[in-house]
């Protein structure tokens, strides 16, 4: 990790110029320059690699318009012209980054958890700065509900983010006591 504060953003943008399209002489001024802690650099980088794979196979145009922290996890906004398939793959890469940010310390990049009261942050033990852990319902750690609408009705699927393998794993909603 860079020892110079602020440089990690420039390095990340330089490594993925095609996704950030920064001004030639001032990469730090890219619209999508990350507004978050350095601990999330790696998960943004992983997301960029995935998006570039999509663009290489599917074509299309893409540019980050904003990357920021909100409610202690990352939000990534983009503009571009992509096929529906490519767009879905890009959104999946962004969902993975968001899920990873929710369990990754934004200071150091180690595993973290949601902490705070007046303000929220995802932090490891070492960077907790006195912020108390936010208690989660047991069994719901890293679980995300996905709402779908098909065949004239709404339904819910559940998935758990597996941090070690950086993938989503489907979870049976009824195992969590959720009625469809
Ligand atoms: Zn940390």
Question: Can you offer a commentary on this structure?
Answer:
The chain has helices at residues 7-15, 17-20, 41-58, 84-101, and strands at residues 63-70, 73-79, 113-116, 120-123, 143-150, 153-162, 167-171. With 180 residues, the chain is of the alpha+beta class. It folds into two domains: 7-133, no CATH class; 136-180, no CATH class. The strands form three sheets. Strands 5-6-7 form a three-stranded antiparallel β-sheet. It has a two-stranded antiparallel ribbon with strand order 1-2. α3 (41-58) packs antiparallel against α4. The mean pLDDT is 92. Zinc ion binds next to loops.
Number of helices: 4
Number of domains: 2
Approximate helicity band:
25-40%
Q: Secondary-structure element sequence?
A: HHHEEHEEEEE
Give the beta-strand count: 7
Identify the overall geometry.
flat
Set down the secondary structure blueprint:
Blueprint: H1 7-15, H2 17-20, H3 41-58, E1 63-70, E2 73-79, H4 84-101, E3 113-116, E4 120-123, E5 143-150, E6 153-162, E7 167-171
Antiparallel strand pairs: 1-2, 3-4, 5-6, 6-7
This protein binds zinc ion (ZN).
Zinc ion (ZN) binds next to loops.
List keywords for this structure.
180 residues; binds zinc ion; 4 helices; two-stranded antiparallel sheet; three-stranded antiparallel sheet; alpha+beta; 7 strands
Q: How would you summarize what this structure contains?
A:
By secondary structure, the chain is an alpha+beta fold. Helices cover 27% and strands 26% of the residues. It has 4 helices and 7 strands; from the N terminus they run H-H-H-E-E-H-E-E-E-E-E.
């Amino acid at each position: 990790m860079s020892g110079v504060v602020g440089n990690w953003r420039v390095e990340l943008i330089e490594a993925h110029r095609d996704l950030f399209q920064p001004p030639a002489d001032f990469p730090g001024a890219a619209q999508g320059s990350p507004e978050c802690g350095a601990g999330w650099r790696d998960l943004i980088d992983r997301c960029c690699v995935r998006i570039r794979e999509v663009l290489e196979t599917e074509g299309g145009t893409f540019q980050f318009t904003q990357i920021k922290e909100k409610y202690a996890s990352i939000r990534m906004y983009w503009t571009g012209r992509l096929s529906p398939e490519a767009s879905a793959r890009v959104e999946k890469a962004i969902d993975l980054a968001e899920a990873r940010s929710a369990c990754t310390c934004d200071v150091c990049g180690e595993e973290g958890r949601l902490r705070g009261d007046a303000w929220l942050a995802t932090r490891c033990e070492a960077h907790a700065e006195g912020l108390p852990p936010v208690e989660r319902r047991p069994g719901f750690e890293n679980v995300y509900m996905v709402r779908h609408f098909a065949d004239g009705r709404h339904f819910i699927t559940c998935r758990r983010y597996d941090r070690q393998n950086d993938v989503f794993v489907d979870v049976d909603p009824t195992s969590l006591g959720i009625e469809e």
